[in-house]
Design a protein that fits this description.
Elements: H1 4-80, H2 94-117, H3 120-141, H4 151-172, H5 194-198
């Protein structure tokens, strides 16, 4: 005959034998869920990063392109006024003013897109670049300002601001390394100025 105690012990052993595997399965399911959730979250973040990096690259590229285009036009206007030599002179006609206004509107819109997508350093660099570009415009058009500055000095500041913007944009996109090694400017291959040709 069995003792009453033996039944209780045997029942506890059989219940614990059933509960332990269930607990193991439950822990495995929770662990699997957690790992799967973390992997999905990491994948989503990677996809978002790639998506926004692509948009940021397009915005940065289009912005710097229109800035360079405007600077080139201002340089042509400056050449027509005798402030600089080298570029094809561009007369300040109503058509030229309309084209400049359209390009400036596009630069402004692209700058706002960059502000939405860019980091603080890149946005700050773009504002500095805008100021330098506007300075070129004022010099080219003969707009008086509080501080006098030569075209060469203003253009050097523009190029430095442009370089800084590109460096910040590259850092924002995770592109490492230097943009390029230092190259002297102005380059010695540039045409001789008109005044020295006449001598």
């Amino acid at each position: 005959m069995k003792k009453p105690c033996d039944c209780v012990i045997g029942g506890l052993v059989s219940v614990s034998g059933q509960i332990l595997p269930l607990v193991g399965v439950a822990l495995g399911a929770v662990g699997s869920f957690l790992v799967s959730s973390l992997n999905d979250r990491a994948r989503w973040r990677r996809e978002q990063s790639v998506r926004w990096d692509g948009r940021r690259l397009d915005a940065y590229g289009e912005y710097i392109h229109i800035v360079k285009e405007l600077a080139g036009r201002y340089q042509g206007i400056a050449a027509s006024r005798g402030l600089v030599t080298g570029p094809q002179p561009l007369e300040l006609t109503p058509e030229t003013l309309a084209e400049l206004g359209e390009a400036e509107g596009r630069r402004s819109a692209l700058g706002e897109t960059c502000e939405l997508l860019g980091d603080t350093d890149t946005n700050t660099a773009s504002k500095t670049l805008n100021h330098c570009l506007w300075r070129l415009e004022h010099l080219a058009r003969g707009v008086p300002t509080q501080v006098e500055q030569s075209w060469d000095q203003a253009y050097l500041e523009f190029r430095n601001a442009q370089r800084r913007y590109v460096e910040c944009a590259r850092a924002s996109l995770g592109v490492t390394g230097l943009v390029s090694l230092n190259v002297a400017w102005p380059s010695p291959w540039r045409p001789v100025s008109r005044s020295s040709r006449a001598e």
